[in-house]
Amino acid sequence: MKINKLNNLSINQKLEILNLWNHEYPENLKYQSLTDFENYLNNLTEPEHYILLNSDHKIRAWAFTFIRAHEKWFAIIVSSELQKKGIGTQLLNRLKSEEKILNGWVIDSENYTKTNGEKYKSPLNFYVKNNFKILTETRLELETISAVKINWTL
Q1: Which residues pair with 104 in a beta bridge?
Q2: Is the pTM above the cut of 0.85?
Q3: What is the dihedral of CA 48, 60, 15, 124, to 10 degrees?
Q4: Which of 66, 77, 128, 139 is most buried, most CB within 10 Å of its CB?
Q5: How far is CA 37 from CA 73, 86, 117, in A?
Q6: What is the pLDDT along the chain (154 residues), one digit of tens a residue?
Q7: How many CB atoms sit inside 10 A of residue 108's CB?
């Protein structure tokens, strides 16, 4: 599988990513419509998208970077059928090859449920294995989600 870097996403790509987002992230973070998701994407500063396609040319993983408060931020979503197969690490390594610093928010509890009823598993240990530091004093506490900041520096 090849990672493709894009500056812009087509409508079909946005729909596939929205489906991936709504299936893999906790239900609290679900977008109700493509318009809502596009509004989120349109508010990102300098986004760059990295998509991983399967043999049927369907998006199975997506990473993106953007600028927030003068820092480089990122997020990754990998289809559950591909998790624990090195795909997330491949995406991270691609981001690391192009950046010197990466920041992200990571849900650090197992108290969330995905839209299919499955328990959401925190990826915090995955990021620790990939040399990210957990900044325990910096948290995102919203009605919908609780997360800790992570950071990787070259």
Answers
A1: 150
A2: yes
A3: -70
A4: 77
A5: 18, 27, 22
A6: 789 999 999 999 999 999 999 999 999 999 999 999 999 999 999 999 999 988 888 999 999 999 999 999 999 999 999 899 999 999 999 999 999 999 999 999 989 999 999 999 999 999 999 999 999 999 999 998 999 999 999 9
A7: 18
Structure tokens that stand for 135 in this block = 């900044």
Q: Positive or negative, the Cα torsion across 99, 101, 107, 108?
A: positive
Q: How far apart are CA 129 and CA 136, in angstroms?
A: 17
Given a contact cutoff of 8 angstroms between Cβ atoms, the answer to whether 50 and 102 are in contact is no
DSSP annotation string for the chain? --EEEESS--HHHHHHHHHHHHHHSBGGG--SSHHHHHHHHHTSEEEEEEEEE-TTS-EEEEEEEEEETTEEEEEEEE-GGGTTTTHHHHHHHHHHHH-SEEEEEEE--S--BBTTSPBPPP-HHHHHHTTPEEEEEEEEE-SS-EEEEEEEE-
